Amino acid sequence: MRIPDWTPDAKPQPQDLVDAVLRRRGGALLNLDRALLWSEPLARGWNVYLGAVRTGLPTSRKLRELGICTVALLTGAEYEYHHHAPDFLSAGGTRAELDALQAFCKSPAQAPRGLAGDEALVARYAAQMTQQVRVDEDLFAQMKARFDTTEVVELTATIASYNMVARFLLALGVTPDGETRML
């Protein structure tokens, strides 16, 4: 990481904040948390907001994780992919779909081979959001035809949020190493 790991000695934070992060993470801080905890307001907001995006939305978890993995692969955010590929699999995705997504992200101008239906559509949508920022009218019309408004909003927010996460991770050089360290 390009910055030192946060520690309670380096920058004391309120215990309720540290406890909230630990609770969301299952008892261990991740390297991402060790960067965020340098700023109390940022860590609080991130914990609540990204917690809601990860676990509070009713839109398909598999499709949300697929969107996140697309962002991670296209931006080179290894940390993000390291965490979300297993979540995609546990949400019902397959190794073959991840392999197809990796191939698609190497040549996103091509149709995603090995991804069908909703998965192909969400991968294309995430790729346009990540690479072009603006989404073509035709692709957006396909999203609206397939998903209800809430699903379009939630998929869009998930993809947009994880573009933010990727940029934060990459700028600070946050790596997946040593994530099991306990506070």
Automatic annotation (TrEMBL):
Q: Which residues form the Carboxymuconolactone decarboxylase-like domain?
A: 43-114
Which SUPFAM superfamilies has this protein been placed in?
A: AhpD-like
Q: Which GO terms describe its molecular function?
A: peroxiredoxin activity
What Gene3D superfamilies does the record point to? AhpD-like
Residue ranges of the TM segments? none
Recorded protein name is: Carboxymuconolactone decarboxylase family protein
Query: What's the source species for this entry?
Result: Ramlibacter algicola
Upper lineage is: Bacteria, Pseudomonadati, Pseudomonadota, Betaproteobacteria, Burkholderiales
